[in-house]
Backbone:
């Protein structure tokens, strides 16, 4: 046997050089297929050379990706070593160990298994991975007779594959939409492509060519070369690098290509798996087959899927497509793969037909009025009908909004928003559910949602107005009448108004409500806009509609409703003249706003805390509603607000809203509403005591704020996020306060730094509204100075000081005043 | 190079291992350990007698990784090991002066 050391050094040098050439070649040509084949050939050579000195009687085979000759730069090299029987194992143990060690030293990541042919031919739940890898087996060297003993696996393996695939999809929440997707394992990724090929080998499906596969191969090659390891996560950083290296115009465009590719693969894979699983359950079959009664002269229902009765129908009469979708919208049954394909082929004829057969709006509207219109829209989108009816929608197809919180592409966001609103209809007793059921024009709302973000395809312009303009062209061409267009135009044009008010305006300020009422004009429009906002926010990402946001949206709706109908629901509680003198004294000097936002029970609670604070100096209460609420009553002093903010941040809580009041006797009542995303307070009862204690000690200056904030992880400054920092002020929005608004990279202690700066500049904080979207914080401060608004000059100075604080290099260190 | 020692709940063993595997970390040493932190164990009753279980079973992960991967690994371990309750464990990070593969005297990053 060759000396291992000699083998290694001799081969390693040559292998390294050739690997390097393959890499250079790839970076020059970006030809992923050639790269994978070249790597497989190189590894073949290295392995065969070393195998030459192995004992006879055993066989070596390549399996998995290596077996297919699709070897990614840092993927494992899967080897199968075949021995005739168990007895041989002892004899080959030592030479095999040396063989594998040498390959390891050359730098190959070998993943090996040793089996007898009968073991390979046995399929049960325990060895699915082996059985699957054998589907791609390739003989390399040794006793070929042993290799030929391996039989082709039975179709039964397909079930196991289906099950494993389902499990894997579940790990990725069954969606292709991930901001930083794993290009191998995520739904629609390369693993799904393999699943399709395997199922085909097992007799299911034909070898259809899928568009975009090259893109996926290329992206994974880049990921491996850039990371120097088997790294399959397409992170934001890698999206930037790969877009640049592969000559794609922007990272957004790269992701657009990615989503297009995985969408096709995922759709086909899920369909094939459905078929495998459907074969299993007889109960399912029974229920499904009952739907065949729905068949009519155009369509027949087989196994719960819609088929065209006459395959040539689409070419003869393109209008069948509209009837097909209408059928889907009525019964909610999916199109069969065959129908899908025929429709896709019939699209050009349908486009011509549409061009000469306007108006299409009445037929389209009929579809929107059916119970399963959400499903129908999705089906129309998937086979290109929607884009044929409204070519304008092509602008947002697979369009990526690249930030840290938009989870979906724009077209998917649109469909999810529509489905969310339509699903509300079945939620009886839910506030928004009832609203959806009271509303007449859901079809117009759906249409507005369909177009609300279409302007995002036109960069460098505010998307709302572009969306409205594009929708006007499209819907007028389709024959929408003036009355309906007015509603749709209003909805698209105002679709950001309610979320802007929720996040940036004090909802208990009558000015906010008056302003919103003036914008919507009528109750019916208010309802539609509320539902649209509900759908729009919910479709940003799966957990975007937090209980807190829901509550904000509902208060905005109900207050605006009261304003429009002149119902004075927000009655202000007035303490009776005979009220006890202690209460009267407590309320002295508190602004009307205080009375407006607190009910009697809350005011009594504050009074109690006030009494407690007389003895202890500080009184704190902690309660839970849609979010947690911490109330602090103590003697007012500078930086009080900032200290409480710091104490909350040190526990990792997200502050959502904060309010500060003080009465004529120097008593401060500060309320902080915050979210406990890690569920710390809920799971650990002691944590609440810890929190209140820390707040008290911080206020009493027994703990330094510096020390508190050191407990939080430091955030890596993101140059882009810091550069995007904006600070503005608004002296017109509120009659009594100046609004200071900023957005910047979020970090622990941010609210503390800002409120400390504001206090230092002599202004009072009345209300703070905080909205955090992943890594970005968007805050609004309502400020006063000596009981009135800030002068424009003062406000400008404040803006400059704040901008300096937020963008300075040390912004992310915990500078303590 | 950094050495990471993570003490986690025994039932989180597989989750943490899987999370590390997903980011391409294969090499690690795992041991069953006993100990307590602020949690300080709890009381149990055995045959009518109350006794203190003051050392609780935990699992310890030890791994050595290149400096650049530190944050990613810490994030993977802590999010996989977190249940939100007291007793979720701790992670310690050490600087490593040198690593040597005994078989062939490889040194540095390539030896870990």
Residues:
């Amino acid at each position: 046997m060759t000396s291992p050391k000699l083998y290694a050094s001799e081969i390693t040098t040559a292998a390294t050089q050739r690997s390097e050439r393959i890499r250079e070649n790839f970076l020059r040509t970006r030809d992923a297929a050639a790269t994978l084949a070249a790597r497989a050939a190189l590894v073949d050579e290295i392995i065969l050379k070393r195998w030459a000195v192995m004992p006879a009687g055993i066989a070596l085979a390549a399996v998995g990706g290596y077996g297919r000759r699709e070897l990614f730069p840092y993927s494992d090299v899967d080897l199968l070593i075949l021995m005739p029987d168990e007895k041989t194992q002892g004899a080959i143990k030592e030479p095999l160990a040396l063989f594998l060690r040498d390959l390891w030293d050359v730098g190959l990541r070998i993943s090996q298994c040793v089996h007898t042919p009968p073991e390979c031919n046995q399929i049960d739940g325990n060895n699915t991975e082996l059985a699957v890898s054998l589907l791609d087996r390739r003989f390399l060297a040794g006793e070929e007779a042993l290799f030929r003993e391996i039989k082709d696996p039975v179709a039964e393996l397909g079930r196991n594959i289906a099950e494993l695939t389902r499990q894997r999809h579940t790990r990725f929440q069954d969606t292709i939409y991930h901001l930083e997707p794993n290009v191998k394992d995520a739904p629609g990724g390369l693993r799904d492509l393999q699943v399709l090929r395997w199922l085909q080998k097992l007799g299911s499906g034909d070898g259809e060519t899928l568009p975009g596969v090259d893109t996926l191969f290329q992206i994974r090659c880049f990921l491996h070369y850039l990371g120097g390891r088997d790294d399959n996560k397409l992170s934001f950083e890698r999206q930037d690098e790969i877009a640049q290296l592969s000559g794609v115009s922007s990272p957004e465009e790269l992701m657009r290509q990615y989503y297009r590719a995985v969408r096709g693969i995922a759709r086909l894979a899920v369909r094939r798996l459905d078929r495998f699983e459907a074969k299993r359950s007889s109960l399912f079959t029974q229920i499904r087959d009952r739907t065949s009664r729905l068949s009519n002269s155009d369509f027949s229902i087989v196994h719960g899927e819609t088929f065209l009765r006459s395959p040539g129908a689409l070419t003869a009469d393109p209008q069948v497509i509209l009837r097909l979708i209408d059928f889907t919208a009525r019964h909610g049954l999916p199109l069969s793969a065959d129908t899908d394909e025929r429709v896709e082929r019939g699209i050009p004829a349908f486009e011509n037909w549409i061009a000469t057969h306007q108006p299409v709006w009445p037929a389209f509207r009929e579809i929107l009025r059916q119970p399963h219109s959400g499903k129908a829209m999705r089906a129309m989108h998937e086979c290109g009908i929607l884009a044929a009816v409204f070519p304008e929608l092509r602008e947002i197809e697979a369009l990526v909004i690249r930030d840290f919180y938009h989870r979906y592409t724009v077209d998917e966001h649109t469909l999810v928003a529509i489905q969310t609103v339509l699903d509300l209809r079945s939620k009886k007793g839910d506030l928004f559910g009832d609203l959806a059921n009271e509303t007449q024009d859901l079809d117009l709302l759906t249409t507005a949602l369909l177009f609300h973000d279409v302007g995002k395809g036109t960069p460098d312009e505010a998307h709302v107005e572009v969306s409205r303009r594009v929708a006007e062209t499209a819907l007028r061409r389709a024959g929408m009448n003036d009355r309906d267009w007015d509603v749709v135009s209003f909805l698209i044009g105002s679709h950001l108004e309610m979320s802007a008010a929720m996040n940036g305006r004090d909802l208990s300020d009558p000015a906010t409500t008056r302003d919103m009422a003036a914008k919507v004009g009528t109750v019916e429009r208010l309802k539609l806009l509320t539902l649209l906002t509900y759908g729009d926010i919910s479709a940003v990402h799966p957990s975007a509609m937090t209980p807190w946001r829901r509550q904000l949206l509902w208060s905005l709706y109900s207050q605006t409703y009261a304003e429009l109908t002149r119902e004075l629901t927000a009655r202000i509680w007035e303490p009776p003249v005979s009220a006890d003198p202690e209460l009267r004294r407590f309320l002295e000097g508190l602004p009307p706003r205080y009375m407006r936002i607190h009910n009697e029970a809350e005011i009594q609670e504050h009074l109690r805390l006030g009494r407690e604070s007389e003895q202890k100096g500080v009184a704190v209460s902690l309660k839970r509603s849609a979010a947690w609420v911490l109330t602090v009553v103590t003697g007012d002093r500078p930086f009080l607000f900032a200290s409480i903010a710091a104490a909350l941040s040190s526990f990792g809580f997200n502050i959502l809203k904060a309010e500060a009041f003080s009465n004529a006797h120097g008593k401060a009542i500060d309320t902080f509403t915050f979210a406990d995303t890690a569920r710390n307070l809920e799971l650990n009862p002691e944590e609440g005591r810890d929190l209140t204690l820390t707040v008290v000690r911080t206020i009493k200056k027994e703990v330094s704020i510096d020390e508190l904030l050191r407990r939080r992880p430091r955030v890596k400054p993101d140059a882009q996020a810091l550069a995007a920092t904006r600070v503005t002020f608004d002296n017109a929005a509120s009659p009594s306060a100046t609004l200071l608004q900023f957005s910047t990279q979020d970090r622990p202690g941010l609210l503390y730094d800002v409120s400390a700066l504001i206090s230092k500049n002599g202004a009072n904080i009345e209300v703070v509204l905080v909205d955090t979207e992943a890594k970005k914080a968007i805050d609004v401060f309502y400020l006063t100075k000596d009981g009135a608004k800030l002068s424009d000059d003062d406000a400008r100075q404040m803006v400059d000081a704040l901008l300096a604080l937020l963008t300075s290099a040390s912004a992310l260190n915990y500078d303590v005043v | 190079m950094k050495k990471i020692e993570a003490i986690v709940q025994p039932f989180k063993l597989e989750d943490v291992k899987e999370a590390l595997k997903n980011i391409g970390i294969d090499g690690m040493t795992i041991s069953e350990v006993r100990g307590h932190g602020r949690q300080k164990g709890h009381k149990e009753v055995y045959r009518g007698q109350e006794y203190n279980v003051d050392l609780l079973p935990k699992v310890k992960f030890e791994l050595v990784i290149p400096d650049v991967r530190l944050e990613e690994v810490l994030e993977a371990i802590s999010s996989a090991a977190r249940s939100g309750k007291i007793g979720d464990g701790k992670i310690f990070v050490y600087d490593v002066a040198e690593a040597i593969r005994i078989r062939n005297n490889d040194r540095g990053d390539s030896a870990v």
